[in-house]
Design goal:
Pyruvate-ferredoxin Oxidoreductase, domain 3; about 35% helix; six-stranded mixed sheet; about 200 residues; 6 strands; alpha/beta
Length: about 200
């Protein structure tokens, strides 16, 4: 768990990675909203790539007393929140020594694998666990239990929130502020499911 030290707000660098359609941008907005309410300065950088076609989506979120750059240098992320296994592996070098990776157990096959021109790597979770502190989350399964597969991002956000020095009330207020009313109940339930892990 990342903890605040003294009166100053300890800096926290979070890399969110996944593929288009997984709700990564919404998750980063909720994180930024919750962090701002807790007194953090925040910088966010988003890379969408071919998001509409299932391509990589990467969001870098930097929090601290004062943050000057939105970009996280390689090897400096405190936490990687990975919405898909292969994306976790691709971005692993951005995690600092002693950092944590929170990874969804979900596998989404990229186009080259579907086309038969590439193979999806085997045993990604085992590989991650041998190298870094790894928390594996059945985000899709938990989201389905809450009533909507698209709430997997909220489950992962709940698991992230447990690692962060931000009050639970700030997270819940951020969800209410950022999520459309018709999806609010399922997202709240999914977030709480992840937070309880």
């Amino acid at each position: 768990m990342v903890e605040a030290t003294g009166a100053a707000l300890a800096p926290v660098d979070i890399l969110m990675v996944g593929v288009g359609g997984q709700g990564i941008i919404l998750a980063s907005r909720i994180l930024a909203h919750a962090a701002r309410a807790a007194g953090y300065d925040i910088k966010v950088s988003e890379i969408h790539g071919m998001a509409q076609r299932g391509g990589s989506v990467v969001t870098q979120v930097r929090l601290g007393e004062r943050v000057y750059s939105p970009l996280i240098p390689e090897g400096q992320a405190d936490i990687i929140l990975a919405f898909e296994q292969l994306e976790a592996l691709r971005w692993l070098e951005y995690l600092k020594g002693g950092g944590t990776i929170i990874v969804s157990s979900q596998i989404i096959l990229p186009v080259p694998v579907l086309a038969g021109s590439a193979r999806y790597p085997e045993n990604i979770i085992t590989h991650l666990s041998r190298r870094v502190h790894t928390l594996v989350v059945d985000a899709l399964g938990k989201a389905l239990e809450c009533g909507n597969a698209r709430a997997a991002n909220a489950v992962l956000l709940g698991a992230l929130a447990r690692q962060m020095p931000i009050p639970l009330s700030s997270w819940l207020n951020a969800i209410e502020a950022c999520v459309p009313a018709r999806y609010l109940e399922v997202n709240r339930a999914a977030f709480q499911s992840g937070y309880a892990l």
